[in-house]
Write a structure and sequence with these properties.
heterodimer, A: mainly alpha, Multiheme cytochrome fold, 2 domains, 11 helices, 55% helix, flat, B: mainly alpha, Flavocytochrome C3, Chain A, domain 2, two-stranded antiparallel ribbon
Chain lengths: 200, 499
């Protein structure tokens, strides 16, 4: 502890540095809060499907899900996030989410998104979670996870059920004029109106 | 001590290093924030990647073609008339020719002159000009119909309502707006141009909902996929004063509710020329009947079946070729019902055949009731004697028309449809029974001699129509007046197409 205190005493801004330091720290915190809200980070705690459309490229996936057989009974998280424990769920969401943000920030998203193996495992787990009886009593497909299935040369659920739920032709541009609940602009209405008036 | 303050344990370069490192971190965070803001701003471009900026109420459908080629192409396909199912289809069929009793049922009303099955939206303007019901107005304010008739035929209507006012739009003769209303049912009727969101463009629907104490603005997107159609595919009437388009929904959207409304205001569309019964004409209560059916109850909207999703290459969109779902069952019925096409088609026809059976009985019975009533008047019946019979005829015809005028009611809600037809048959029987009593009171107890109305021509000549003259006037109107209208429309830039 003393070592830390000594280190801090060494590097903390003193005298003339105090004010610039405070200002820059303020700038940092402010930017951080701005980033938090503009990325709508608070929305990721919920299960609302509209949250996933924070990244607008998710539009077609939202639209195809909404009009599918799963549209009434499931949310995005019900399939794409582990539901067996809250901790595992949030951890997975965090890791996956940060990966998404990184890819999205560098504009590295594919035109036709595909699930990474870790994701596929979770999705198949969730297929079996809801369709338990079907997958353990009638057919035995639910007894193995995705990884084992692939290693043994088997098929995942969606290798046959190809349309569920995002349909067969799915890409970032597959539903051009679909109605998606995109995030609202954070330009306040009074300013928008003012800008529109000026344009006229 | 003051001078030494800055150097106490910290070398100057450490201070500067920390300063620049922190600046660097803040800068990077700013970049991240900017990148997030930028990608979020892209959302505006998702909906705004348009070749042509369209604002306000754009009534020329061709303008939308550049921005929404798929929806536009499929909309144009509503001109197609090839589809035929057992009872319905996309082509124009002369119903009076097939069912001459209808001429009698509508004696004294324009429908007895001309009534054909409706066809695709693209034909809306052409067909309203061609039907004998709109007459042949050669002069500026001639003709039997008010401007309200235009309301459901064109996106020019909301444009005009916006510029001249709603009541002012309605309260003119039909021919008054002939040169203004030239584009068939299209984009601006259902969509607002800036965002292509579904929105209501006809005030009558808003007012109809208000009459029920509901607010149509509360509708969800899925509900709007039905309400956009409910702007026109509903029962309505024009108020005698001002010809204001009104939906009779003050007591709800049921057949009985509407009848109660009409009875309370003492309304009749016309007095029957033969029986003198006060008749209400029902117009296509598609939305009302559909709402009572099982599909509506399960949350299926009009667009789910009539504007199904279509996959073309890698793109999926709503087909705007509105027609019978039987024409492409794999993306309409079979999305939810996994039975074979043949099975599903039989399910539809079964219900339609049952309804048809009752309908045929009703038409015969009701036409006979009208003719017998006419006979009773000739035998010297008084108003007091005939009152009950005429009331029953009114009720029978209202029920018959309510069911039969609907597009697809026999499938949308077969139970309700057949209930309504059965009630119509009941009233028709009761009416004839009453008339028999009146005839007996006036000294006649035999079988009423009925005229030969076995064909459309015979029926029309029986009720005194000069169809040849109507047709020749219409021909003149189409050859002389309509081109004037089109020329004026082109001059005022209301029309884009070449025709």
């Amino acid at each position: 502890m003393d070592k830390l205190r000594n280190l801090w005493n060494e590097i903390r801004p003193r005298g003339g540095w105090k004010y610039p330091a405070i200002i820059i720290s303020g700038a940092f915190v402010g930017l951080f809060i701005y980033t938090f809200f503009t990325a709508r980070a608070h929305s990721y705690l919920s299960n609302d499907p509209a949250t996933c459309v924070n990244c607008h490229i998710m539009g077609p996936y939202y639209a195809t899900w909404m009009h599918s057989s799963h549209g009434r009974n499931t949310t995005c998280n019900d399939c794409h996030v582990p539901q067996d424990s809250k901790i595992r769920g949030y951890y997975f969401k965090a890791v996956d989410g940060l990966r998404h943000s990184a890819v999205f920030t560098i504009r590295g998203e594919d035109q036709a998104l595909q699930a990474i193996p870790a994701s596929s495992e979770v999705i198949m787990e969730n297929c079996v979670r809801c369709h338990t009886q079907l997958n353990s009593e009638f057919i035995r497909t639910g007894r193995m996870g995705f990884k084992e299935m692939k290693e043994m040369g088997g098929h995942a659920c969606w290798d046959c059920h190809r349309d569920v739920p995002h349909t067969r032709s799915r890409s970032l541009s597959s539903t051009p004029n679909a109605r998606i609940p995109m995030p609202e602009t954070h330009v306040p209405e009074w300013l928008q109106n003012l800008m529109n008036e000026e344009k006229d | 001590m003051n001078r030494n303050r800055n150097h106490k344990g910290m070398k100057p370069w450490v201070g500067w290093l920390l300063f620049f490192v922190t600046m660097g971190v803040v800068f990077l965070l700013g970049m991240l924030a900017a990148s997030i803001t930028q990608r979020r701003a892209e959302i505006a471009s998702v909906m705004n990647n348009r070749k042509i900026e369209i604002t306000g109420i754009e009534s020329r459908n061709e303008i939308f073609a550049e921005n929404y080629p798929r929806e536009y192409e499929t909309w144009r396909q509503t001109a197609d008339t090839t589809f035929q199912s057992e009872f319905n289809g996309s082509s124009m069929v002369d119903v009076l020719e097939e069912r001459p009793e209808m001429v009698i049922l509508w004696a004294g009303y324009a429908f007895s002159k001309d009534y054909s099955t409706p066809r695709g939206h693209m034909h809306a303007i052409e067909d309203i000009r061609h039907t004998l019901r709109t007459g042949s107005p050669m002069g500026p304010d001639e003709g039997p119909q008010p401007a309200t008739c235009w309301t459901c035929k064109s996106p020019d209507v909301p444009r005009l309502m916006d510029s001249v006012g709603i009541a002012e739009f309605y309260n003119k003769p039909w021919s008054h707006w002939g040169h203004e209303i030239v584009n068939p049912i299209g984009c601006a009727d259902c969509h607002e141009a800036e965002t292509m969101n579904l929105r209501v463009s006809r005030p009558a629907l808003i007012e109809g909902f208000e009459a029920m104490g509901k607010n149509v603005q509360d509708a969800t997107h899925q509900e709007m996929r039905t309400l956009a159609c409910a702007q026109c595919h509903v029962e309505y009437y024009f108020t005698p004063e001002g010809k204001y388009l009104t939906f009779p929904w003050h007591n709800g959207t049921t057949m009985e509710g509407a009848e109660q409304y009409y009875d309370e205001i003492g309304f009749a569309d016309y007095t029957h020329a033969l029986s003198k019964a006060p008749i209400i004409k029902a117009q296509h209560p598609d939305y009302e009947i559909y709402s009572t059916g099982i599909h509506a109850q399960r949350g299926v909207s009009c667009a789910d079946c009539h504007m199904p999703y279509v996959s073309e290459g890698g793109v999926k969109y709503s087909s705007h070729h509105k027609r019978s779902p039987l024409a492409s069952m794999n993306n309409t019925c079979q999305v939810c019902h996994r039975e074979t096409e043949e099975d599903l088609r039989n399910n539809v026809y079964e219900r339609q055949r049952s309804a048809d059976q009752i309908r045929n009985l009703v038409e015969k019975e009701l036409a006979t009731a009208h003719l017998e009533a006419q006979f009773a008047w000739e035998k010297g019946a008084t108003e007091a004697q005939m009152k009950e019979a005429l009331q029953l005829i009114r009720q029978s015809q209202w029920r018959w028309d309510y069911a039969v005028a609907s597009h697809g009611g026999s499938f949308h809600s077969p139970v309700e449809f057949q209930r309504i037809l059965s009630l119509s048959l009941d009233r028709a029987h009761k009416a004839r029974f009453e008339i028999a009593k009146v005839l007996a009171l006036n000294g006649f107890t035999g079988n009423v001699p009925l005229p030969d109305i076995s064909t459309k021509e015979k029926a029309q000549s029986y009720i005194g129509l000069d169809i040849a003259k109507e047709r020749s006037n219409k021909q003149r109107f189409l050859e002389e007046k309509v081109p004037e209208w089109l020329e004026s429309a082109r001059a005022n830039n209301r029309l884009v197409s070449l025709k």
